[in-house]
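User: Show me sequence and structure for the first protein, then do the same for the second.

Assistant: Starting with the first protein.
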Amino acid sequence: MKTTRHNKILELINKYPITTQEELIEYLRADGYDVTQSTVSRDIKQLRLTKTLLADGKYRYQASPSAEKGAKNNFKSIFSASVVTVEQAMNIVVVKTFSGMAQAACAALDMMSFDEIVGTLAGEDTIMVVCKDEAQAASCVESFNSFLE
């Protein structure tokens, strides 16, 4: 659960200019995470988030490059531990996971920020990955399979 929450925090701070812990808590709660201020405070410390100055004089949370690298390695671990098979169907990649693992693997996949991926959709044990074209889908299959080795 903590790894998934950390994953979501990194996703949120990359997507929104979050300036306070309260703001981060609101975004997390909107995504279904029942968190307290002390939990978020610990998460910020563990993720080694820093605040950087914006042009408007406000500060926003940002992950350090080493924190993002460590998180991406964790995401690869989650992905590789969850996935059973990866297959291409034209510009779509179908990823089969162990039962109940598709959501976590899909969240990990989303955090890896593949440029080739247009979008993802996860069910109970299947992830559908939509790529821009067949060549990029083939590239994704190759990358995904390398995580499984």
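Switching to the second protein now.
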Amino acid sequence: MPKVTAWLDAHIAGIAGPYEFELIAGGRSNVTYRVRDAAGTRFVLRRPPLGHVLATAHDMAREHRLITAVGRTPVPVPRTMGLCTDADVNGAPFYVMSFVDGVVLDDPKKAEVMTPALRRAASEHLVDVLADLHAVDVDEVGLGDLARKDSYIERQLKRWTTQWENSKTRELPEIEELAAILKRRIPAQQGVSIAHGDYRFGNCLTDVQRGRIVAVLDWELCTLGDPLADLAYIGIYWRDPDQGPTGAADPSGIEGFPFYDELVERYAKRTGRDVSDIDYYRAFSAYRLAVIGEGVYARYLHGAMADSLPDLDVMKNSVDTRAAYGLEMARRVRP
């Protein structure tokens, strides 16, 4: 990667080639490399998926802008070091940020090294960091023009309803009923916040020795919106102690991790927000994930992503499960 090496040498202070690049995350999402320079200094390079050509630097520049802005707040994020918008350097725009040492807790096995007390501490800090994120004045940090500030749920429902119609592979009455309830019972939005869009242990780095979140990652879905959507999203993956773990993208369900309702209560105390409609937002999050899942399933089914074929029945059933869970939550919502 001679062009990347030359760019790094010219634009990033305190490092020097040659560089070693190690892929640490990839796939349909943005790709992340751990990089080590000649002196052993570690940092991170993030770019779009390989083979994915962007017409503009919008995605990388937007993500870089977000992390830079959030870096001026109490929310822990890597420190941005530089942005390259010249696609000739690396085939697509990319940015560089500091390396943060921590564990991505996306499986119960990764939490087994922690004591029950540390598991609880990490869970509580996960909520506290989210509360800090939602307390950020978006105008003060220069993100006031990132997106519209009003009618978040209405706009999201319109988007995902259209997406369902365009990608569905079959009729699913649960989805239709769920969408109808969600449209009928939209709660009043409680202010505007930076909405991460995919906030959970699996998108954070955790110091497992201290039970602390040391960096929030994966900001590509971030926008401005209703803060309770982020809180509810945690609950889609969360397993209460009496349910046991599933191993599906979350460490919860083993001893020490609190009940989800405890997290909601902690958030309410930290923020002062009314969380009585949290089941609505859980239903909305399940609907959103079901529609996204159907879109991915449809692309695999039609051969557009045949490079690594998963179990299609499992994928299809996960959509059904999300829809059923969302409908269960929606039916709890006050008329």
